[in-house]
Design brief:
Blueprint lengths: L17 H6 L4 H18 L3 E4 L3 E4 L2 E4 L5 E4 L2 E5 L4 E4 L8 H7 L3 E2 L4 E3 L7 H12 L7
Antiparallel strand pairs: 1-2, 2-5, 3-4, 5-6, 6-8, 7-8
Helix pairs in contact: 2-4, 3-4
Pfam family, one: DUF1801
Protein name: YdhG-like domain-containing protein
Length: 142
């Protein structure tokens, strides 16, 4: 059963070009961060980027079904270059890769994503490894 229209996720794939989106970000540093993350996620997943909604860049997709029977599609991994923080999606839980999380650097975690202020605050090799672990089934995306 699909979700009723009023409950449907507002984030879905669009035809927008992720690189063009990144290049239109207001701050030059956010543009540079976006281009870096496009490259990192692309290399880690082996997938092309797709815009999901107006501000999320996703890689791959997967279907889900809630216990209630509602279902939908989400991207498996991705990021959102926000003004204050960058949101990273599809990374594994701490339990799935504790040694990597300990080495990542300055970050915080929410229910479905990890937040960083800027890529310079973290170890990018560790981030790439976390993306791969999540992508390969370490309970990150789907």
């Amino acid at each position: 059963m699909r979700m009723p229209a009023e409950k449907q996720p507002t984030t879905a794939p669009t035809g927008a070009d992720p690189l063009e989106y990144v290049r239109t970000l207001e701050a030059p540093r956010r543009r540079a961060h976006g281009e870096l993350l496009l490259e990192l996620y692309g290399r880690a997943t082996g997938e092309p980027p797709v815009m999901w909604g107006e501000s999320m860049v996703g890689y791959g997709s997967c279907d889900y079904t809630y216990a209630s029977g509602w279902s939908g599609t989400v991207f498996r991994a991705g990021f959102r270059p926000g003004r204050a923080k960058i949101s990273l999606y599809g990374l594994p839980s701490h339990e799935a890769a504790p040694e990597l999380w300990e080495k990542l650097g300055k970050h915080s975690r929410g229910a479905s994503c990890t937040y960083i202020n800027k890529p310079e605050d973290i170890d990018l090799d560790v981030l790439t490894q976390l993306i791969r672990v999540g992508w390969e089934g370490g309970d990150g995306g789907c």
